[in-house]
Recover the amino acids of this structure.
C-alpha cells in the first residue's frame, strides 16, 4: 500500500520524465529538420569515434548504471560541428551506450529519458557556445568552453539525479554527490581537450584530430582508474560499516537477553525507522546511522538491574527511580 506522499512523488516522477522526454524529442526533431553538414566525411569520422567511445563503459560506484567518456567528443563536436550534427552524434552514442551489452534489457522509457536528457544538454550547451554576447566577450575561448562544459554537465546529469530521487525515494543531494558530481573535473579537462582540437583544426585541418586520439585514450585511462579507485574505497568503507553494524548487533543481542525481548522486535523497529527515514528524504549516511540507532534504542536497559526489568508486578517508587 502506497502512502499519499509516495503517490505524490510517483506522480511528480512520471510528470518530470514525460516533460524531459517531450522536450528532448522536440529538440531531436528540430535538429533533424534543420539538418546541415559542411563536411560529411568529417561528421562520419566524429560519429564513428563517438560510437566507439560509447562501447567502452565504466560502472558507476554503488549503482547499476554505467558511464562512458563520449562526453569528451560531444564537447569537441559542440565546437566543430553544427547543432544538428552534434545532436545526431550525441543521441546515437547515448542510444548505443544504453543498449550495447546491457546487463538487463533496458526499459523503453529509461532509454528515451537518457537520450532526451542528452539532447536537451547538447542544445543548451550549443546555445551557450554560439551566443553572440559570449562569442564576442573578453573572456576568451578557453573560459567559454569551460562554461559550456559546466552547462553540459549540469544539464545532462541533473535530470538523471532528479528522476532517481523521485522514483527510488532517495535524497537528491546524496545521488548527485555520490553518482555524478565527482565527474565534473573531467568535463573541465574535456573542455581543454576540445580547445586543443579546435586550435589544431584551425591551423592544420580536422584530420589533425587523429593525433589527439592517444590523448583521448590517456584521458579515458585516467577516468577509469579514478572510478576503480572510488569503487575500491567504497567497498572498503562498506566492509568497515558492516563490521561496525555486526558489533552493534552483538550488543543488541545482549540487551535482548536481559529483558527477554525477541530479536524480531529490533528488526521490525529497524525496518520501520529506515522506511520513515527514506520517506523523509534522509541521506544514505543518515539512514545507516538510523539503522544502527534502531538496534541500540534500548541500550539504557544494560544499566538497570535485571530484577527490576524482569519484575512481573508493578514497580515501587524506589525501583522506578
Amino acid at each position: 500500500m502506497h502512502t499519499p506522499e509516495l503517490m505524490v512523488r510517483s506522480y511528480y516522477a512520471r510528470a518530470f520524465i514525460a516533460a524531459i522526454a517531450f522536450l528532448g524529442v522536440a529538440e531531436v526533431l528540430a535538429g533533424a529538420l534543420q539538418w546541415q553538414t559542411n563536411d560529411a566525411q568529417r561528421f562520419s569520422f566524429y560519429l564513428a569515434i563517438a560510437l566507439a567511445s560509447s562501447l567502452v563503459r565504466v560502472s558507476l560506484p554503488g549503482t547499476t548504471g554505467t558511464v562512458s567518456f563520449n562526453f569528451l567528443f560531444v564537447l569537441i563536436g559542440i565546437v566543430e560541428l553544427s547543432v544538428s550534427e552534434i545532436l545526431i552524434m550525441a543521441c546515437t552514442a547515448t542510444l548505443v551506450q544504453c543498449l550495447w551489452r546491457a546487463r538487463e534489457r533496458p526499459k523503453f522509457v529509461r532509454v528515451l529519458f537518457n537520450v532526451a536528457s542528452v539532447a536537451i544538454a547538447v542544445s543548451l550547451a550549443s546555445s551557450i557556445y554560439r551566443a553572440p554576447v559570449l562569442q564576442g566577450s573578453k573572456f576568451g575561448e578557453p573560459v567559454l568552453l569551460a562554461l559550456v562544459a559546466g552547462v553540459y554537465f549540469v544539464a545532462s546529469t541533473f535530470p538523471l539525479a532528479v528522476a532517481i530521487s523521485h522514483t527510488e525515494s532517495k535524497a537528491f543531494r546524496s545521488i548527485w554527490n555520490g553518482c555524478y558530481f565527482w565527474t565534473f573535473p573531467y568535463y573541465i579537462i574535456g573542455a581543454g581537450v576540445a580547445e586543443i582540437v579546435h586550435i589544431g583544426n584551425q591551423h592544420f585541418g580536422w584530420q589533425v584530430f587523429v593525433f589527439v586520439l592517444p590523448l583521448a585514450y590517456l584521458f579515458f585511462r585516467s577516468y577509469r582508474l579514478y572510478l576503480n579507485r572510488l569503487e575500491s574505497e567504497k567497498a572498503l568503507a562498506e566492509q568497515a560499516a558492516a563490521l561496525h553494524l555486526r558489533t552493534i548487533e552483538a550488543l543488541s543481542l545482549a540487551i535482548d537477553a536481559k529483558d527477554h525481548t525477541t530479536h524480531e522486535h529490533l528488526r521490525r523497529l529497524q525496518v520501520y525507522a529506515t522506511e520513515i527515514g527514506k520517506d523523509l528524504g534522509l541521506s544514505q549516511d543518515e539512514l545507516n546511522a538510523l539503522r544502527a540507532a534502531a538496534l541500540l534504542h534500548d541500550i539504557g536497559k544494560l544499566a538497570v538491574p535485571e530484577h527490576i526489568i524482569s519484575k512481573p508486578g508493578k514497580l515501587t517508587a524506589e525501583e522506578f527511580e
User: Anything to note?
Assistant: The longest helix spans residues 213-259. Strands lie at 57-59, 66-68.
